[in-house]
Amino acid sequence: MDESTLRLAAFVAIFGCMALAQTAAPRRRLRFGYRRWPANLGIVLLNTFLVRLLFPAGAVGAALWADANAVGLFNLVELPPAATVALSVILLDLIIYWQHVIFHAVPMLWRLHRVHHADNDIDVTTGLRFHPIEIILSMLVKISFIIAVGAPATAVVIFEIVLNGMAMFNHANVRLPRQIDSAIRLLLVTPDVHRVHHSVIPAETDSNFGFNLSIWDRIFGTWKAQPDMGHDGMTIGLTQLQHAPTHSLAFMLRLPFQGDLGQYPSSNRKKERLDV
């Protein structure tokens, strides 16, 4: 099975499992529910087409090129293959954490990223909802980092599947038993952990940036265990877009280019620090 087929099979399997799980054991009552799905899934198809068009070799191609040309840290340092794969996956997860932080901190990038946060519900499809320009920039970041560290192709395939799968898992509207959630969140980002990040309260939007490993938020001081209003009482989305047509594909595509920054969480945190 080639890399593309493997990733597609993993995507379909994980999406199907999360869709069934959130139907069987929903965490919250959704305001719009399945009405959002055509637009959220439509932007996935558009993003997939653009990535294939602009980056035909993809992130795996970058890893193969780095290996063939002995470029990058792990192509210069001798380590056991298993250690190289494990370290590459961990470092890639760290770079995605910091990329997420930066997309909240830089006004121009926040304009793009707020397409993701503008969803007024949160479920498995929210984890796939990103503006095409953000997807392209993210791909450039990944390719640059893969070449810089010399990540092996095996690690890149594993990471791409894990990142995509965990994004669907931790955005899913799934109720996990409290003890299971408490155990998993020690290492990984659970739906209850990441849901806090989609709160309309800026200080909560500016927390829990991890998509896979929860340790980065703990290490870098961006961890928040629970939302102030509770998971049933919290409001999802962005304050100024609560009544906007956020489940329209056309609206999502033009959102970065219209209006002011609105709810800009990182500037809010800077202001809070100045006020202390």
Give the topology, please:
Elements: H1 3-24, H2 37-54, H3 58-68, H4 81-105, H5 107-117, H6 132-149, H7 153-171, H8 178-184, H9 191-195, H10 202-205, H11 215-219, H12 230-233, H13 249-254, H14 265-275
Give the structure's gist in a few sentences.
The protein contains 14 helices and no strands.
Total number of β-strand segments? Answer: 0
Strand content: under 5%
Secondary-structure element order, N to C: HHHHHHHHHHHHHH
- What would the principal axes of the Cα set say about the shape? globular
The domain tally reads: 1
Number of helices: 14
Report the C-alpha radius of gyration, rounded: 19 Å
Major β-sheet, in short? none
Estimate the helix proportion, in percent.
Answer: 55-70%
What number is the mean pLDDT? Answer: 93
Residue stretches low in confidence (pLDDT < 50, at least 5 long) are 270-276
Distance between the termini: 56 Å
Which structural category fits the helices and strands?
Answer: mainly alpha
List keywords for this structure.
globular; 0% strand; 60% helix; 276 residues; disordered C terminus; mainly alpha; single chain; 14 helices
Question: Could you explain the architecture of this structure?
Answer:
The protein is an all-alpha fold and 276 residues long. Helix content is 60%, strand content 0%. The chain is built from 14 helices and no strands. The longest helix has 25 residues, at 81-105. The chain starts with a helix and ends with a helix. InterPro entries: Fatty_acid_hydroxylase, Sterol_desaturase/TMEM195. Keywords: Lipid metabolism, Membrane, Oxidoreductase, Transmembrane, Transmembrane helix.
